[in-house]
Amino acid sequence: MILPATATDLTRRLAEEQSHSRLPSLAAGVVRDGELVWSAARGTIDGRETGRDADEHTQYRMGSITKTFVAVAIMRLRDEGKLDLADPVERHIPETTIGDVTIAQLLSHAAGVQAETDGPWWERTEGGPWRSLVNHLGRPLIAGRQFHYSNLGFGVLGELLTRLRGASWSHVVADELLEPLGMDRTTKRPVAPHAHGLAVHPFADVLLAEPEYDGGAMAPAGQLWSTVHDLARWAAFLGGRTGDLLAADTLAEMCRPLVVVDVPGAPWTGAHGLGVQLWNVDGRRFVGHGGSMPGFLAEVRVHIQTGDGVVVLTNATSGLSRGFATDLLDAYVCAEPRPPSVWRAGKVPASVFELVGHWYWGSTTFELRAMDDGWLRLAPASGAGRASRFRPDGRDRWIGLDGYYSGELLVAIRRPDGTVSHLDLASFRFTRTPYDPDADVPGGVDRSGWH
What we know:
Elements: H1 4-20, E1 25-32, E2 35-43, E3 60-61, H2 66-79, H3 103-107, H4 130-133, H5 151-165, H6 169-178, E4 198-200, E5 207-209, E6 225-226, H7 228-238, H8 248-254, E7 259-260, E8 270-272, E9 277-281, E10 284-293, E11 296-303, E12 309-314, H9 324-335, H10 350-353, E13 357-361, E14 364-370, E15 376-380, E16 388-392, E17 397-400, E18 409-414, E19 420-425, E20 428-430
Antiparallel strand pairs: 1-2, 1-12, 3-6, 4-5, 7-8, 8-9, 9-10, 10-11, 11-12, 13-14, 14-15, 15-16, 16-17, 17-18, 18-19, 19-20
Helix pairs in contact: 1-9, 2-5
């Protein structure tokens, strides 16, 4: 539950944003522990004084947030062994001109595929079938060399999903994700009550209706409609509450920054993972996606470490203040900081317990700590430097999960009597004392010792 004073403050902030930014309607919600703890809306769905008031169940077009659903469906295929992220497009869709680019490059906007189609502005015109889209693909512009956002690339991923599942991308998303998550107000086309897409004149308080069509083969880039109530469940999903729909390791893989959004002359604060946007705000990492279609703006943003999230939806082509979603979430977190988790004793196998404590790489002190179920965390005692977590991979073996040692093998080397001599990690030797002469230190240890 949210404190009344916090709810009042958040509702005031939403009202100020709707009024000052001249938005026909604005709806938002905050998520904690997988639940929608606060939501509010202001304005009417058609922008008229006599229109229906917006609320947390009002549908808005989510735009590119659609891409996150397509991406999760693709990753489920990967986890089932039906594709590899390194697969070139031509392995599954042979008739394109971008056959050399990989699925991972398409997901992370690193394929160099052009941003939009060569035809009419697809967001404002009725979309055609795949056979019409494939003629607009062209050749990759800058494949694999830098970030280049591509709506067209997600049209290709939607076709990939359709071919490998034998059903349209939207049916796959509905069957595999929306229905299990109870997101019954998330649909491909608008279902009443829904907001009307509107543009607000920059110099007069008047409105213009924006067109809305089925995007056809481009629909996977931004077709879906949803509500604050439904997208709160998606925020909880991106925050780690994936249930049996997606492995935790797969979600973590999606949330790693792969391609930086580089703006010359400015420090980078944004990146893309596998189908998701990532933000680095003062050292805090967020995952989610923004959305923009004619008449609509949207954002889902979740703090990766805590799972606290925010959803913002409006029916205006432009005007929403940059950073409003983050500011709203920050206001909530500052008013009601998350209490630390309750400490409880865990399970530590005896073979792990004997390894904990100080280890030395050369003259640098490291600490090896036991985590639950035999996992380990190795980090410099100073707190700065190469730190990684490791999961068990057999007797006396662990696999690095993150940091410098991601994917590398940590092995406890034992003496003939069964005691541990040293740790071997990617050819580095960690010993119980600095340069232990009794351990197998590469290059040997000077016989004269310390002096």
